[in-house]
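Exercise 7b. C-alpha cells:
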C-alpha cells in the first residue's frame, strides 16, 4: 500500500497535470522517469481494486458546482471580483486568466477519468484473482468514467436536444492514459451521451450486485441510477423512470428517515448509508455554504432538513444575508455529509417527476410522499395531493431543490428548467445589494466556456458561444 500511495502521488504530480491540461511545463524525459515505475506497480487484481478505492475518486466532484446555482449567496462579495470562486459565482466566461493555472471544474472530472482509464487500459494484463473479478473491476471503471462524463457533457455542452445534439460540441472523450497518444478533439453532445449509455450498458452484466459495504463503489443498482439521471437530463422521461425503478429493484429502496432521529448526528456515514446508491463527496465536502434568502424563505419551517443542516434559523423569517449557513456535516458538525452521487430519494423524485409530466398525478404524489414523509415530523405531516398537473410538477421540482441543495445538482436542473422557460432572471448582488452579475433566461452562460488553459494547447478547438 505504501508503494501504491507513492505511485499515486507521482502520477498526480506529473501525469495528471498534463493529461488534464493542467499545464505545468515539464519535460518528457522527467515525466518518463516516473510514469513507467508507477505503471509497473499496478500488477495484480488487488492493486487495481485498491486503485478504485482511492479517496480521490470518493471526492471527485467540484465544490464550485454549488457556486453556479441560484440558491447560493456571497453577501460580502465586492463589485470587482478577484478570485476563481467569485468568477464562477458571477458566471464569468473564464474562471482564471492564467493559462498555467489548473482549470476549475474541468480538471477535477478529467482527473477521475484518468483513474478509470488506468484500470481499463491495464486490467487485462493484471495477475492474480479470477477472470470474473477482472471483468467486475473493468465494469466499475466503465461506470465511474460514464458518471464523470455525465457531468462534463452537462457543463461544457449544450443541453441535450435530439434535433441538434449530433452537431453541438461537448468535450473530448479520452480513453487513454498514455501521454504519447494524441489528444482527441471535442466530441458532440450526442457522441458523449452514446458513450455514457454504451459504457454503462456494457458494464451492468459484470457489476457487483451489492455495494452496501462501500457505497462509493459500483453496483448494478448504481449503474441503473446513473442511467436514470442520464435519461432525465436528456429529456427521455420514460427511460429515466424505467431505470430509476430498476435501480430501486436491484438495491436499497429505503429513504433515510429523519423523523426517527433526534438530531443529524444519527445520520449514518456515507460509506455504508443505506439510502446512498452510488456515493460521492465533493472535493471540499466540509465547506459551508451561504444560502440565498429567497431559497431559505421557500422552506416549510417544519422541514427537518432545515434543522439538521442549517444554522442560525432564528424565527425562520430569513431577512439577513449571511446569517444562516448550510453546514454540510450537519449542525452538530458530525458525519451527516450529503451524498453528491445518486440516492434512493433521487430515484423516487425522478419517478415522481416523470409521473407528473405524464399526468399520472396519483403516482406522482405517492412517490413524492415517500420522500417528504421522511423529512417532516410525523405528528404534523400531511401528504401533498393535487389534481392539477402543473401544481404537482412544480411541487416535485421544488422538492428537488430542498432535497439536493448544495450537492452540485441545482445547476443541472436550472439548465433543464431554462430550456422549458421555467427559469427567471438570476442576479448576483454585492455587499450593498447592487446587481453585479445577471443570468438571463436562455443565456449562453448555461453552457460553460472551455477553459483557456485547455484551448492554449488546443487552439484549433471551437469555443462555446457567449452572450456578446
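Sequence design result:
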Amino acid at each position: 500500500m505504501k508503494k501504491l500511495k507513492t505511485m499515486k502521488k507521482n502520477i498526480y504530480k506529473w501525469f495528471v497535470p498534463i493529461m488534464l491540461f493542467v499545464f505545468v511545463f515539464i519535460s518528457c524525459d522527467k515525466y518518463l522517469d516516473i510514469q513507467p515505475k508507477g505503471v509497473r506497480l499496478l500488477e495484480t487484481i488487488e492493486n487495481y481494486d485498491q486503485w478504485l478505492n482511492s479517496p480521490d475518486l470518493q471526492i471527485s466532484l467540484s465544490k464550485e458546482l454549488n457556486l453556479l446555482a441560484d440558491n447560493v449567496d456571497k453577501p460580502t462579495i465586492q463589485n470587482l471580483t478577484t478570485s476563481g470562486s467569485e468568477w464562477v459565482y458571477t458566471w464569468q466566461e473564464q474562471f482564471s486568466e492564467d493559462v498555467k493555472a489548473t482549470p476549475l471544474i474541468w480538471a477535477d472530472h478529467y482527473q477521475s477519468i484518468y483513474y478509470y482509464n488506468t484500470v481499463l487500459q491495464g486490467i487485462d494484463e493484471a495477475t492474480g484473482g479470477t477472470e470474473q473479478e477482472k471483468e467486475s473491476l473493468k465494469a466499475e471503471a466503465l461506470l465511474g468514467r460514464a458518471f464523470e462524463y455525465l457531468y462534463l457533457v452537462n457543463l461544457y455542452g449544450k443541453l441535450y436536444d435530439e434535433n441538434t445534439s449530433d452537431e453541438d460540441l461537448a468535450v473530448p472523450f479520452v480513453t487513454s492514459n498514455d501521454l504519447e497518444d494524441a489528444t482527441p478533439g471535442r466530441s458532440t453532445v450526442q457522441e458523449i451521451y452514446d458513450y455514457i449509455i454504451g459504457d454503462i450498458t456494457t458494464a451492468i452484466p459484470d457489476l457487483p450486485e451489492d455495494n452496501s459495504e462501500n457505497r462509493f463503489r459500483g453496483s448494478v443498482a448504481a449503474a441503473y441510477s446513473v442511467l436514470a439521471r442520464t435519461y432525465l437530463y436528456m429529456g427521455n422521461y420514460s427511460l429515466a423512470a424505467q431505470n430509476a425503478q430498476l435501480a430501486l429493484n436491484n438495491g436499497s429502496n429505503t429513504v433515510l428517515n429523519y423523523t426517527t432521529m433526534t438530531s443529524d448526528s444519527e445520520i449514518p456515514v456515507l460509506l455504508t448509508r443505506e439510502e446512498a446508491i452510488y456515493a460521492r463527496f465533493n472535493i471540499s465536502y466540509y465547506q459551508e455554504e451561504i444560502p440565498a434568502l429567497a431559497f431559505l424563505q421557500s422552506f416549510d419551517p417544519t422541514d427537518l432538513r432545515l434543522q439538521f443542516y442549517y444554522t442560525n434559523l432564528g424565527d425562520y423569517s430569513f431577512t439577513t444575508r449571511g446569517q444562516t449557513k448550510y453546514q454540510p456535516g450537519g449542525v452538530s458538525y458530525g458525519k451527516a455529509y450529503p451524498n453528491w452521487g445518486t440516492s434512493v430519494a433521487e430515484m423516487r423524485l425522478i419517478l415522481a417527476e416523470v409521473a407528473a409530466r405524464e399526468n399520472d398525478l396519483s403516482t406522482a404524489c405517492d412517490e413524492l410522499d415517500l420522500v417528504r414523509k421522511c423529512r417532516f415530523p410525523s405528528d404534523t405531516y400531511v401528504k401533498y395531493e393535487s389534481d392539477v398537473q402543473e401544481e404537482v410538477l412544480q411541487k416535485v421540482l421544488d422538492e428537488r431543490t430542498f432535497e439536493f441543495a448544495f450537492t452540485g445538482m441545482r445547476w443541472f436542473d436550472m439548465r433543464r428548467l431554462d430550456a422549458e422557460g421555467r427559469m427567471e432572471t438570476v442576479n448576483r448582488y454585492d455587499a450593498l445589494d447592487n446587481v453585479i452579475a445577471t443570468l438571463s433566461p436562455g443565456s449562453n452562460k448555461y453552457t460553460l466556456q472551455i477553459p483557456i488553459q485547455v484551448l492554449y494547447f488546443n487552439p484549433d478547438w471551437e469555443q462555446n458561444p457567449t452572450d456578446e
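Instructor comment: The radius of gyration is 22 Å. Confidence is low (pLDDT under 50) at residues 1-39.
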